[in-house]
Amino acid sequence: MTIARRLPGRAAFMAALLLTITSPAHAEAPAVTIWYRGTPAGVPRQDDLALIRSLGFTAVSWPTAHAAALPALRRFAKTVGLQIVTEPDGPAVTDAAVVRLADRVRIRVERARPADVAALAWSAVATGSRLISFDAGQTEGHGLADVSGRERPWVRPAVEFARQLSVNASLFGGMTPGPAVTFEKGGTPNTTVTLFAAARIWVLIAANTGRDGRELEVRFPAGVPYALWTSLLDGETMSMLADPAGPRWTATLGGGAAAVYFADR
Description:
The chain has 2 domains: 26-174, no CATH class; 176-264, Golgi alpha-mannosidase II (Immunoglobulin-like), CATH 2.60.40. The chain has 6 helices and 15 strands. The protein has helices at residues 9-21, 46-54, 70-80, 117-126, 155-167, 169-174; strands at residues 31-35, 59-63, 83-87, 98-101, 104-108, 131-135, 176-177, 182-185, 191-197, 201-208, 214-219, 229-231, 237-238, 248-253, 258-264. The chain has a 6-stranded mixed beta sheet with strand order 3-2-1-6-5-4, covered by helices on one side. The chain has a 6-stranded antiparallel beta sheet with strand order 7-9-10-15-12-13, covered by helices on one side. The chain has a 3-stranded antiparallel beta sheet with strand order 8-11-14, with no helix packed on it. Helix 2 (46-54) crosses helix 3 (70-80).
């Protein structure tokens, strides 16, 4: 199994830059977990937890039905550096790729296309989720690899998402909802563009959880900067069209795609 231990160079540089321009968070960033039910079910294994941690995840969700195993789980998790979140292993079976309960979202990666994982996860951040968990739907084991030991396709986008929230915890813990934007073209129930305010920057999160690409035209409120927005995900820059009524952003957002940009306030 291929294990990535750091972000790509340019993305790592942008993450380090954000750490220098954001103030300490007053609230915690959304937590990201991998569902883990033990091997066999209800029996935690340190090797499983070590693999989950080595990929860059910092927490696992454990079923409350297996509470008797929590002492052993916590001991193993402490050794490898993982946090534990206990959750009911529900709700009832559903075909949906996303199950939302209050401020928690479970992304059922066995029902989602790998290409959709990033959009589903960033959409959860944009809609205020405080716990985002990835569930491979297995009754036992970590679900990160197939029977031949090859990493499953959903793992890489989930890892990259979890690392962004971990490295930039100050940013995502401290940002608050900004003014609403207006779709002039391309708005659908599957397409979200959301603006947030942090200590010294604006943050834009766009996600398309649909299968088809969208041509977007989005109007931002007056006072939002129209130039020098930088992608948190790959370090690329983009600008908006200046207009007295507020800048206008035009973009193509593929099916299952997400974009996260920031700019000085």
